[in-house]
Amino acid sequence: MTEQPVLLDRAGAVLTVTLNRPHRKNAIDQPMWDGLYDAFHDAERDDDVRVVVVTGAGGDFCAGADLSADRTDHPLTRMHRVNDVALALNEISKPTIAKVDGVAVGAGWNLALGCDLVVATERARFSQIFARRGLSLDFGGSWLLPRLVGLQQAKRLALRAEMIDTAEARDLGLVTWIKPAAELDSFVDSLAAELAELPPVALALSKRLLEEGASRTLREALEGEARAQTVNFATEDAPAAFEAFLLAKTEAKYTGRWAVR
Hints:
Strand order of the largest sheet: 1-2-3-4-6-9
Order of helices and strands: EEHEHEEHEEHHEHEHHHH
Low-confidence stretches: none
Oligomer: single chain
Largest sheet: 6 strands, mixed
Distance between the termini: 53 Å
Radius of gyration: 19 Å
Strand content: 5-15%
Number of strands: 9
C-alpha cells in the first residue's frame, strides 16, 4: 500500500500536518506538494481549525524538495506549484507552528520559516542548501530571510549554504524555542492549545498587521491598526474579554463571532 505523503490529525481546534516520507527525510515530491497545498488551503477555510502545526515524520522535519524524482514537465510549471504551496501557507490566518526535529534544509527550512512560530529540538540542523545543489533560493526564502535576519545575514546563509545548529538559528531569530526531543511534543501541544483558546479574529488581524508592517510607513501601519481594532470591537470577543477581566476575573471564551446585528 502506498503511504500517504501528508498526514492530517485533528485534536480539537488544532490541526497537525505531518510530512510523511521518512525514508527520504521527508523530501517533498509532487504528491506531497499537492497534499500540502490541499491541507493549507482547507485549513484556512475551516472555521473549526484555530491552530495549524507543521511537522515531519521519522525524526526529521524536511530535507527540501526531492530532486531525484523523474519529471518531464517544465521546471517553471513545477515552481508554480511550489509557489502555490508557499502562498497557501502564508495566507493561513490562524497561528501556525513548525515543530522541527532533525534536518530542515532548503525548501524544508523555508517551510518552517513560513510558519509564525518555530519550536526545534536541540539536535535540529538547518541550511539554505540551494547553492550546494546549483540552485538559488525558493519557497519564499528570498522574501523571508531578509525580513527575519536582515540583508547581510540573509546573504551569508544563502551564499555559504552552511549547516547551522539550533542554538545559532535561535541567535539569528530563526527559532522561537529550543526544547529537548523528549519534550517537543508536549510543549507544542500545550502551545497550540493555548493559542487555540485566544480570540481568533484578533490573532488573525495581528498576524496580517505584523507581516504588512515591514513594507508600510508608520502612518499606513497606524491606519491598518485602527481598521483592525474596529473589526475586533464588532465581534463578541472584545466585550467578552473586558467583562471577564473587569467583572468576573476569569478567562473569556473566544468565538470570533460577529456581534453587530
